[in-house]
Amino acid sequence: MTRADTAGSGTAGSGSARFDNARFDTVLVANRGEIARRVIRTLRALGIRSVAVHSDADAGAPHVREADVAVRIGPAAATASYLDIGAVVAAARGTGAQAVHPGYGFLSENVAFARACADAGIVLIGPGARALEVMGDKIRAKEHVAAHGVPTVPGFSAAGMADADIAATAERTGFPLLVKPSAGGGGKGMQVVRTADELAGALQTARRVASAAFGDDTLLLERLIERPRHIEVQVLADAHGTVVHLGERECTLQRRHQKVVEEAPSPVVDAPTRARLGAAACAAAASVDYRGAGTVEFLVAGDRPDDFFFIEMNTRLQVEHPVTELVTGVDLVEQQVRIAAGERLGIAQDDVHLTGHAIEARVYAESPERGFLPATGEVLRWRAADGVRTDGAVETGSVVTADYDPMIAKVIAAGADRAAALRALDAALADTVVLGVDTNIAFLRALLAEPAVRAGELDTGLIDRLPPFVAPVPGPAALAAAAALVHDRSQAPAAASPLYPRAASPLWRSRSGWRIGATAAAPAQSFATADGTVVEARGDAAARITTMTDAAVPSAGASDATAPTDETRDPTGPATPASIDAAIDADGAVWVHADGATHRLQPLTRRAAAERRLAARGRSGGAAEPELRAPMPGAVVAVHVADGAHVAAGDRIVSIEAMKMEHAVTAPHDGTVHVTAAVGDQVRRDQVLATVVADPPPGDG
């Protein structure tokens, strides 16, 4: 087991009693990544044989190796593998699995999958088809729970209504309104309408997105709750009529309707409100004869924490379930398995007690400084922090592709109170090492440091109001480590690189600082940071790290270095990382983790560094670089202008397709464009696609 596995165990099966129920002894996990690993841990603790499924892209993934049995179910595309109901059911039958755990996402809330499992005589570890049907439709779910006394946001379904009728009903409901697709999730298609004049355009946009994303353009209009908090309640229900809740989770910190940081309990929910929320959640679950673990989500008015409204019910395990496990001591996956096997729930409501505080941060493969663009690549080094729970999907040598969700890990910290949990989470993020793939870790640490977050003064729009994220500047330790690694690579026998080709003189490649008539100077190396800034490392860097031999490097072509220090830290105090990690990727860029931050530094020759500095000096204050670079690896799908054409600031120059999305690269200023990319080109991250030579200032020439 890797450190990520042991750190991730915690309540995830560590205290589970053996599973003696004869109903099933083999469970297939119909998922991948961290949730598959997490489910497998509990199955192992219960003594249940686990079956993993995988696509071709995941053939070497950690969850495949950790399961007792693994079955290929298709190619990389999720639609042809993890979403292929027939393939998953066939894998279960072929391995003798009596039950399937769907995790979350993929088929976890799919009614057709539930029916296919039932037809095959396989138990779905989840609710029945009726709960999936009712709660899977936002409009139907809202009407259903309202009839059972659960408070709902004022609003109406636009199904079958003409636009004129929608407008009239909207006036009666009152503005502002939120227009959203009934069939979807994840914030897709949602439109905010503050006045009647904005309604027609919002309806058109929402229908268009809903039809494209979900194949259903039915809309739901609800009163917009200003500066709301998103709070959800965890419920457990057995097949014998018992329903309990395990308290609430605060999931308010979201970016574009996607959760980023979650915690339990909520800092604004008091005991009486918790009891009311729990009662409403249990009523919603009981109304559909719910079975297993589920989550009922509510909007809470920012200025009235005791005023809450039902949003929807997620009929599965949630991504953020670990925070509930840490404050209650209940293994939710174990409870799911036991309930699915027909056992009575062994927990009464009076048995549930929330102890301390837990906070979870989702680590995504993305570039916050580039507008949160998804990132791909090989993980050159992965190391989870000690002292906290980390549910990781990757390890050293894993490859993050564009085929699946970009979440690669969850870091979950607990403390005696919220302040202690926040400190522990920040320290753990500082100690989490991911080299080779961009992540949002630096953004997460900046978010946790926000005064409003520290004070618990949250609303769902907080992140979207923050200024654009700026990556941390590499400090002396990071630069020294990067310079030392480049220096050591250049000293290797027959070393060759884009900077120092094989034919170059060994003396030149050594970069020892030797000069005629002078003593040797310490190695110096210039780098370009992610935003193009030129930085330079000076001083004796070689002693700061020890380069591993090629035999110790897990991935061909990558060098790795680690320098343990004598520093230690209190896990609830300020972060003081215990090591410096560095690696070189296939493009020659140096990745360094030091002082709690990770940097990608592109080595520059002296000439390239000088040219960049001169170019920067030549630009007027605040002017953008003339080079247009690829924000991520991808394919050029369009070139919008002719070489030599005059363009204006903001004009589209080139479009790149990557991660199933199209990204337009635009002109930074008015000028003449020189295009170096062509349609069909496969481009690397930061490859120059075009150059826009700025127009001279008025009056020049």
Outline the secondary-structure elements:
Blueprint: H1 3-9, E1 26-29, H2 33-46, E2 49-55, H3 62-66, E3 69-74, H4 85-94, E4 99-101, H5 111-119, E5 123-124, H6 129-135, H7 138-146, E6 155-157, H8 163-173, E7 177-181, E8 191-193, H9 199-214, E9 219-223, E10 229-237, E11 243-255, E12 258-264, H10 271-286, E13 292-301, E14 304-314, H11 321-328, H12 332-340, E15 357-364, E16 366-367, E17 373-374, E18 377-378, E19 381-383, E20 389-392, E21 399-400, E22 407-415, H13 418-431, E23 433-435, H14 441-448, H15 451-455, H16 462-465, H17 476-491, H18 506-510, E24 525-528, E25 534-537, E26 546-547, E27 560-564, E28 579-584, E29 590-594, E30 597-604, H19 606-618, E31 627-629, E32 634-639, E33 646-647, E34 652-658, E35 661-666, E36 671-675, E37 682-683, E38 688-694
Parallel strand pairs: 1-2, 1-4, 2-3, 4-5
Antiparallel strand pairs: 6-9, 7-8, 7-9, 10-11, 10-13, 11-12, 12-15, 13-14, 15-22, 16-17, 18-21, 19-23, 20-22, 24-25, 24-30, 26-27, 27-28, 28-29, 29-30, 31-38, 32-34, 32-37, 33-36, 34-35, 36-38
Helix pairs in contact: 13-14
